[in-house]
Amino acid sequence: MGRAYQNRKADMAKTAGMKTKIYSKYGKEIYVIAKNGGIDPDGNLALRRLIDKAKKDQVPAHVIKNALDKASGAGGENYEAARYEGFGPGGCMVIVDCLTDNTNRTIKDVRQAFTKTNAKIGGQGSASFMFDHQAVFCFAGDDEDAILEMLMMADVDVTDVELEDGIITVYAPHTEFFKVKTALSEEMPDIKLEMEEITWVPQDYKTITDEDDKAAFEKFMGMLNDSDDVQNIYHNAIVE
Q1: Dihedral over Cα of 133, 98, 6, 204: its sign
Q2: How far is CA 140 from its chain centroid?
Q3: Contact, 222 vs 198, CB < 8 A?
Q4: What pLDDT sits at residue 135?
Q5: CB–CB of 206/91 below 8 Å?
Q6: How far is it, in rounded angstroms, from Cα 169 to Cα 171?
Q7: What gap in Å lies between CA 18 and CA 4, rounded to an integer?
Q8: Average pLDDT, stretch 200-209?
Q9: In angstroms, rounded to a whole number, what is the distance separating the alpha carbons of residues 52 and 22?
Q10: Which residues have a Cβ under 8 Å from the Cβ of 33 and sit 6 or more positions away?
């Protein structure tokens, strides 16, 4: 799954739209996490992970700083998290994570994306049970067994380690994110992580080949990404 998963992530990223929209989404999420857990990354591990991810995605420093400055002040927007699940075009399964200050607007946007593409929005848990909430790390390497042994010796709970096309992918429970990262950094000081994130990994994939379904899926993703409230979209579709 490793290299293939990484490639699918790259394809998904292409649908995210213009850089300004990506920056806006990062800024909102940094603001919310800093507002709730504190603006010091050393004391707010979720914030530290998000800032590292933002930097890897080339989010400008001023976007990060502005979000932190905003979070340190009094008042400000009151965002809440909302998750929607369902069945997308071609029978794929979808999780849509949002941050919103107007749930009525958000559910309207998300519901329209489903209904206008002959998809079906479901209840809580209707899709997420087919995904694993995982920490995922990808880096160049050629010996997955050595990596697994090293992580086990560091007392890290690892779900799987895979090698594909010269890329090692480590999967672990999302709660183990910093233990995995710390172990890799200490044992491999020169490691260059191509991916380090907490995400929802599909247990199985749905291949979409029908041309109408492929067009509907593209429209579906476009409508979701056009919503300012949508932060992340997870699905198990492989479009061929």
Answers
A1: positive
A2: 21
A3: no
A4: 96
A5: yes
A6: 7
A7: 24
A8: 95
A9: 15
A10: 44, 46, 47, 50
**What are the tens digits of pLDDT across the range 100-131?**
999 999 999 999 999 999 999 999 999 999 99
pLDDT at 216 over 70: yes
Q: Is 184 helix (H, G, I), strand (E, B) or coil?
A: helix
pLDDT at 195 over 70: yes
| Strand 167-173 versus strand 160-164 pairing type | antiparallel
Phi, psi torsion values for 85, nearest 5 degrees: -130, 160
- pTM of the entire structure? 0.85
Residue 202 CA to residue 147 CA, distance in Å, equals 23
> 15: which residues sit within 8 A by CB, 6+ positions away?
218, 221, 222, 225
* Residues 196, 170 contacting (CB under 8 angstroms): no
Give tens-digit pLDDT for 57-74: 889 999 999 999 999 886
